[in-house]
Amino acid sequence: MAEATPAPPAACEREFLEYSGPVAGMKYPVKVKYCGDCGTPIEYCEFYPNYEKCKKWLESNLPDEFGKIVSVKDDDGEGGGGGGGEADDSEKKKRQTRGGKGTVKAKKKSEPTGIKVGTSKRGKKKTITIVIGLASYDIDLKDAAKFFSNKFACGSTVQGEDEICIQGDVKDDLFDILPEKWKAISEDDIDDVGEIKK
Questions:
Q1: Are 129 and 171 in contact (CB under 8 A)?
Q2: Are residues 35 and 77 both part of a single domain?
Q3: Is residue 132 in a domain?
Q4: What is the number of structural domains in the chain?
Q5: Percentage of the chain with pLDDT > 70?
Q6: How far apart are the C-alpha atoms of 154 and 146, rounded to whole Å?
Q7: Same domain, residue pair 131 and 173
Q8: Average pLDDT along the chain
Q9: Are residues 76 and 122 in the same domain?
Q10: DSSP one-letter string for 127-140
Q11: Does residue 127 sit within a domain?
């Protein structure tokens, strides 16, 4: 039998995190309360860019927890008087605002500008059909591309913010299918722009 090799001396000197068991006075399983506005646990709401909205939601839905959080803030000295507006301004300057869920960009509401349908050459013999302008009718471009793929049995992709490329020359069929599928579109809104240079 082979003997177990002893651990190197450097490994014996390291301190590892040891689990000491459940904490006395804590009730398990721990129930975490989440904010309805930002979706994070309520103790992390202060790091959310729209903290004021979280405070309003907490005050109306969880007043006990709101009272605890506000009293903790006052003890830390953030909510106290004395300094007044200067402390609040410097706090806003220190807080870093980040993108993501907190800063959702509002979509621009624009009038429908019409739909442009054209073709483009891909290689020597291949043709693709390009549809521009569906997004101005509040049509989800991914769903529209999937619909075109199923309808024409070909590939279709979303290109850019307001453009769908369909493999094959299906331009003539689109004049009938678009008003039939989406009632907001009339045949007068669809323009044939011929060949589009890419």
A1: yes
A2: yes
A3: yes
A4: 2
A5: 73
A6: 10
A7: yes
A8: 78
A9: no
A10: EEEEEE-GGGGT--
A11: yes
Q: Which domain holds residue 191?
A: 115-195
Mean pLDDT of 164-193: 88
Supply the pLDDT for residue 1. Answer: 52
Per the domain annotation, does 138 fall within a domain?
Answer: yes
| Distant-in-sequence contacts of 192-195, Cβ < 8 A, 24+ apart | 192/117, 192/118, 193/116, 193/117, 193/118, 194/118, 194/119, 195/118, 195/119, 195/120, 195/121
- Report whether pLDDT(142) > 70: yes
Q: Which two tokens stand for residue 190?
A: 């669809």
pLDDT for 80 equals: 43
Classify residue 122: in a domain, yes or no: yes
- Summarize pLDDT for 5-36 with one digit per residue, the tens: 665 555 566 677 787 888 888 888 888 888 88
Cα-based distances in Å from 91 to 46, 48, 86, 99, 137: 12, 14, 9, 19, 43
Alpha carbon of 188 to those of 116, 127, 163, 175, 177: distances in Å? 11, 25, 19, 9, 13
Q: Do 68 and 136 have their domain in common? A: no
Task: Identify whether residues 119 and 177 lie together within a single domain.
Answer: yes
Specify the pLDDT at position 30: 83
Strands 190-195 and 115-122: parallel
Rounded to two decimals, what is the model's pTM? 0.46
Q: Whole-angstrom Cα distance, residue 66 to residue 79? A: 14
Token pair, residue 54, equals 């979280």
Are 78 and 140 contained in the same domain?
no
